[in-house]
Specification:
By secondary structure, this protein is an alpha/beta fold. It has helices at about 10-25, 30-40, 55-65, 80-90, 110-115, 135-145, 195-205, 225-255, 285-295, 310-315, 325-330, 345-355, and strands at about 45-50, 70-75, 95, 120-125, 145-150, 160, 165, 170-175, 185-190, 210, 215, 270, 275-280, 330-335. Strands 1-9-8-5-4-2-3 form a seven-stranded mixed sheet, with helices on both faces. The protein has a three-stranded antiparallel sheet with strand order 7-6-12, with no helix packed on it. The protein has a two-stranded antiparallel ribbon with strand order 10-11. It is globular.
Length: about 350
């Protein structure tokens, strides 16, 4: 079976973990600080705050930007539930706009009509490693005085007009084991706002600026130095990882003919966390998945149920019609695109997909 994802763990990551174990400093410490500094430098932001997951990064980012109960946050229904769960964690209400079927990202033409006096923030998701149109989104946010919280959990290294994901507002990254840059679990918040950064640091560690002096309600959302040590090595390897993903995606785009393949617009640098095709014209997506599985190709469906149809979210937002997201949830299949694919794997994937 060619897996849909496969972490790339070298001797360098193993040695880094052993060094931390030997140091005796296992909780958040010097490796975490080094990871934060290197991450901020790499992605041209003033602050990077390491946390325990991408979900906690989103949660903290919303709190640090003043999103509170009764506020509304405009976002996409075509995302992992963590995006919307983070909005619910702070007591706010998610307000959905439909998606663009070519990019799978928010349809920005619908955003302004969803803005109300209760709207506090816009939370775009740079899905599959492909960024939203951030010029247009920033214009909307500035016009209406709204915060931007970027869900960049799938987009580490992605750019729009040479500016990195997570640098337009407050960014949230995930380092889950399947991500382009992984540390098993873990996350990062990025911002150029000194006040937001200070709040993020306090919220992740029980509201403390200095040990045992609690200035606000906070959480234990800290990263460990074991995770940070892995992340530091992976950060150095990220350009290599992303370039291999881009090469694999280009190979597929030039050879796959049986399904709708993804395309990238000018000014966007796609990092291909997922390579997602569409089974259209009323064909049976699940039968296509079964056929690929039988041929030894792992696949993923991201996502089979749009967020507004998830039971706990539907209780909050009610019956919402978002026809493009609903249709995409029945058409998408993600294929292996990770850096460990060899040429035989790539050829096999193309051959079997073209049999669909």
């Amino acid at each position: 079976m060619i897996p849909i994802s496969k972490p790339d763990i070298s001797d360098a990551e193993k040695s880094a973990v052993l060094e931390v174990l030997g140091s005796g400093v296992l909780a958040m410490g010097p490796r975490t600080a080094q990871f934060e500094e290197s991450f901020a430098d790499t992605f041209n932001v003033k602050h990077a705050i390491a946390v325990s997951s991408g979900t906690t990064a989103l949660h903290i980012a919303l709190l640090a930007n003043g999103v509170k109960p009764g506020d509304e946050v405009i976002t996409t229904p075509f995302t992992f539930a963590a995006t919307v769960n983070a909005i619910l964690y702070v007591g706010a209400k998610p307000v959905f706009v439909d998606i663009d079927e070519e990019t799978f990202n928010m349809d920005l033409a619908q955003v302004e009509e969803r803005i109300t006096p209760s709207t506090k923030a816009i939370l775009p998701v740079h899905l599959y490693g492909y960024m939203c149109d951030m010029d247009r989104l920033q214009d909307i946010a500035e016009k209406h005085g709204l915060k931007i919280i970027e869900d960049a959990c799938q987009a580490v290294g992605a750019t729009y007009k040479d500016k990195f994901a997570g640098s337009f507002g407050t960014g949230a990254y995930s380092f889950y084991a399947t991500k382009n840059l992984m540390s098993g679990e873990g996350g990062m918040i990025t911002t150029n706002d000194d006040e937001v950064a200070e709040l993020c640091k306090m919220i992740r560690s029980h509201g403390m600026k200095r040990r045992y002096y609690h200035e606000m309600l906070g959480y234990n959302f800290r990263m460990t130095d074991i995770q940070a040590a892995i992340g530091l090595v992976q950060l150095k390897r990220l350009p290599e990882f992303n370039e291999k993903r881009r090469q694999n995606a280009a190979f597929f785009n030039s050879r796959i003919e049986s399904v709708i393949t993804p395309r990238v617009k000018e000014d966007y640098f796609h990092v291909w966390h997922q390579y997602t095709v569409r089974i259209n014209h009323g064909r049976d997506r699940d039968a296509a998945v079964d056929q690929l599985t039988a041929a030894g190709i792992g696949t993923g469906i991201y996502y089979p149920i749009p967020a507004h149809h998830q039971a706990h979210i539907k209780e909050v937002v009610g019956n919402v019609s978002l026809p493009v997201a609903e249709r995409m949830s029945k058409e998408v299949i993600s294929l292996p695109v990770h850096p460990q694919l060899n040429q035989m794997d790539l050829n096999t994937i193309v051959t079997e997909v073209n049999k669909l």
